[in-house]
Amino acid sequence: MSEDIPLQVVYQKIETKDDEVSLKEVKSGVELEDSCCKEEKCCKEEEKEECCKEEKCKKGRRFCRSACACFGCFTFIMMLVYAVIVLSISVKVYMNVHQCFHSKENVYKESSIVDRHINQIHINVVTGFVNIEFEKREDIFIRVWDNARSRAHVESDTFDSGVAINNTAIIVHSVSPAFTLKSCHHAKIQIYIPEDYPQELLISGNVKVGMMHIDGKNKKNVNIDVNVDLGKIVVEDIKSNYLSLTSEIGLIKVYDTVAQNTKISSHVGIIRTYDLSSKNINANTQFGCSKHYNLYAEVANINTRFGFSTVKNPSPIINETEPVHLDFHMNTEYGKAKVVLNSPSNLNFNIGNTKGKMKVEYEEKDWVCMVKKSSQTLTDGRCGVKGLWGHFPSTNTVNLDMNTKYGKATMILVDTSKDQDE
Fold first, then answer.
1. Which residues contact 321 (CB under 8 A, 6 or more apart)?
2. Rounded to whole angstroms, what are the CA distances from 409 to 178, 184, 327, 381?
3. For the segment 355-410, what is each residue's pLDDT rounded down to a tens digit?
4. Are strands 120-135 and 397-413 parallel, antiparallel or unpaired?
5. Quick one: CA dihedral 101, 106, 107, 111, positive or negative?
6. How far apart are CA 225 and CA 331, in angstroms?
7. What single string gives the DSSP state of each residue in 216-273?
8. Backbone phi, then psi, for 28, in 5-degree steps?
9. DSSP string, 145-178
10. SS3 94
11. Lowest mean pLDDT among 150-159, 237-246, 340-349
12. Model confidence at 287, in pLDDT bands (50, 70, 90)?
């Protein structure tokens, strides 16, 4: 027989720690996700601000580049336009001036003088160019062109020009209205003198505006006394007893010339001499420059009121039979004065400066110098070439007297083996 066993219901509490942990983990994961989202949101906002700043900077840089490019293009275009305008004006002015001075419209006159007793040629020109040369011929041949821009100006105006003989003098003149670019009235005069002309000639005259060029070619014996008010005087290869050149405003040049007495005067302008040999030299400049290279003389006076004076290698006139000396006086009222010497065996110098600077330079290996007296306004001394110091009776001597009131005075003694013709 079977026996029924009664069943009892048993209730037991099940601990769910793992579930709690899992819930906590889920909860913490949700919180972590929320915090991560907030951080990402913040990061995105910061990146957005940075991106905005970068965009603004990029736009600013682009704008600056564009502005600079536009300004550069504008400047280039304006410079190009300016260059074109200047070039056009320059070409127009050049063509105008070229047509003015190279016009074929002129009145031509010529004269041939075979008289060998002529001893003076006098020139009187208002505006123009005068060229005097020596060449192989038998007569004194003179050409005169009175030029104008057009035939209308030639026909409408009467030129007072020509060649005349007065006893032993030839008078060449060309008087015309004042020069303007519209009419271009000016003269061209060519004078050819025989190379073997027996008489000693005097070339004198005056040019108001223009140029006078005298070329002696192999030291022809001719005396010169000319004046150019505004323009240029060039004298080269001349042998003369008397040389006088005067200019109010302009340039005076003398090349390779020998003269007994030389006088050069310029009110405003430049005086330049190269290889000038003259017993007595006087060069006077009121406003401008006075430059002399290889100056040979017994007495030289270089005077400048306002400007610059430069003399390179002043020397006594060479004489093989007896000692030679040069008395050299250089006066500058306001400006700079410089003397460069490389030839004298003995030098006596006196440099004075009222308000300014004095400077003496020399190479000790080539020169021996001794200062006798020195102050703020005066330097007095003596220099000589080593090996020839003290041999005054048998060597050449330069006595330099250099005075500058307001400015700078410089004396330079260079190596005697160096060439100072430059």
1. none
2. 43, 46, 18, 15
3. 888 888 877 677 778 888 777 788 888 887 776 655 544 467 889 999 998 989 99
4. unpaired
5. positive
6. 25
7. EEEEEEEEEEEEEEEEEEEEEEEEEEEEEEEEEEEEEEEEEEEEEEEEEEEEEEEEEE
8. -65, -35
9. EEE-SSHHHHHHS--EEEEEEETTEEEEEEE-SP
10. helix
11. 150-159
12. very high
% of the chain at pLDDT higher than 70: 77
CA 330 and chain centroid, separation: 23
CB neighbour burial string for 312-340, b if at least 16 within 10 angstroms, e if fewer: bbbbbeeeeeeebbbbbbbbbbebbbbbb
Q: Closest by alpha carbon to 137, among 104, 114, 171?
A: 114
Residue 47 to residue 279: CA distance in whole angstroms = 95
Beta bridge partners of 328: 300, 400
299-355 pLDDT, tens digit per residue, is: 999 999 999 999 998 988 877 677 788 899 999 999 999 999 886 668 888 888 888
Composition of the chain by helix, strand, coil, percent to 5: 20, 55, 20
Q: How far apart are CA 396 and CA 322, in angstroms?
A: 9
